[in-house]
Amino acid sequence: MTKTKIELLSPAKNKEFGIAAINSGADAVYIGAPAFGARSAAGNSVSDIASLIKYAHLFNTQVYVTINTVLYDSELEEVTKLINSLYSAGADALIIQDMSILEMDIPPIQLFASTQTHNYSIDRIKFLEQTGIQRIILARELSLPQIAELKQNTNADLEFFIHGALCVSFSGQCYFSQAVAGRSANRGDCGQHCRMLYSLEDSLGKTLVKNKYLLSMKDLNLSSYLKNLIDSGITSFKIEGRLKDIGYVKNVTAYYRQKLDEIIDGNPLHLEKSSSGKITYFFVPDPEKSFNRSFTNYFIENKAENIASLNTQKAMGKRIGIAKKVLNNYFEIESAEVISNGDGLCFFDKKELLNGFNVNKVDGKKIYADDLSELYSGAQLFRNNDHQFEKEMLKDVTVRTIDVSLSLKANEETLILSATDEDGNCVEVQRNLPNQLAEHPEKMMETIQRQLRKTGSSIFRVTEINTEMSKQYFLTVSFLNELRREAITCLEQKRISTYTRAIKSLPKPELLFPAKKLTYHNNVTNEMAREFYSKHGVEDIADGYEVSTPKKGDVIMTTRYCIKRQIEICPFENEFKNDFKEPYFLNDGSRKYELEFDCANCQMRIKL
Predict the structure, then answer these.
(1) Distant-in-sequence, close-in-space partners of 119: CB < 8 Å, separation ≥ 6
(2) pTM of the predicted model, to two decimals?
(3) Which of 232, 268, 314, 371 is the most exposed place for a label (fewest CB within 10 A)?
């Protein structure tokens, strides 16, 4: 029976972060190319990516490189050369958005459709699969039933975000930053206008909501839905965060590694993890201790409740208790958590603004800080900087190892040490037998066991040593060390040399795109992408927003999130005496943006 391989996919801001993710349990990492990645601040040299790949492949861990921006005509030649370089460096796949890449003369590297390609509907996903794309990174807005339906209609691998920051817009469908500031989200340069303050007003200028973060989502946490997602057809579980710190990468990766291992261990006949090695942790993972704006399960159960972080766009951290007995320079707290000097605590003050302070000293129940003027008895306190935990995360002590068994045999003239790893790779090294027999066979055997287990800084952990010798020869410590080092080096080289990459699937002939007309929402910004769609039956192709001139009335953001539902004025769900006149507008203090509600599809659009 073929088992389903389950992949935990972690972010890598750079080589160091990628290695940390692998050591913490990632089955794969995704990392930005030198350019053309959807996080412009997270690019990496090809040489660094190659170095990361070499380390990753020792554990059968894969490395995916993001080239997931829209591209301009002047960039296509450079991108073609870059893809060839990345393939030569050993990259396992490219995460792409621009369809011009499917027209380029490139090596047979696997192609994954970025979530930026707006992978929300069955017809689009079926089309992408038939172009030869092996994996579809699904839209975050999908529910479990929708995912299951998509899986029934495609053979492509399905990847889904399970943790991290949420864009309020459908991915690839946000033009807010481009329209307002000339900074394209589809070019990796989002100005994050969704994290700004807005007032909600009606057409007469009356205010429904004043100065709230009306478009800022809480962070995603689907740790309670991993088994449901596997049952629905997800095989790759993605953690967001190529711009997060290394502590976040270690902590969140370790947390989901343990969660997925529990599920895999509970169903060993059908599931297995997609990489090798065992991880020894020196901390207890807790995602609440890393950056978060509090958590939501978003639309995984179809209709989401209270998914926006209206009062702050900043990290809140973990809820730790309630403030008691607040005085000028100290307070007391009801909490099961240990508070330490240097911790950062925050709370919402009586004006519903996020306020905070650093802990100067802890004396029993008393917690001292410089400015407690806004803190009040009864305030819920959160720890957004766990000083001790962050110190722990900066230590490089989590270890990932490959189990190996050793066998030492002797024939008439030769001593043979064989090493076999957990994946079945086997090597042998040989030496001439020494002439001298051991005076103390039992002590010699103890020395053999002790020296052969010393794998030092290698990736291997010796779990078993067998000896088959009719006579106990005297073997010096240096001889045993040399024998072991050579066997370990050969085994490491074999793991690298036997690693095989999957290759790109061939496209289906005479494939038609499921629409005859494309708008700017299809993100066509170069002639090669235009040729791609024309070849597949599209007759009318509009320029992408980045090569167009913004005009009043343009839809600059499309969301499944609805402000009406968030503030409980949805006419289908709430009894609400409507004294306000639509259309509604978002007002950022300098300009207004009209809201359009598509209630039939439960979507909201923002217009310029």
Answers:
(1) 113, 125, 128, 136, 137, 138, 139
(2) 0.96
(3) 268
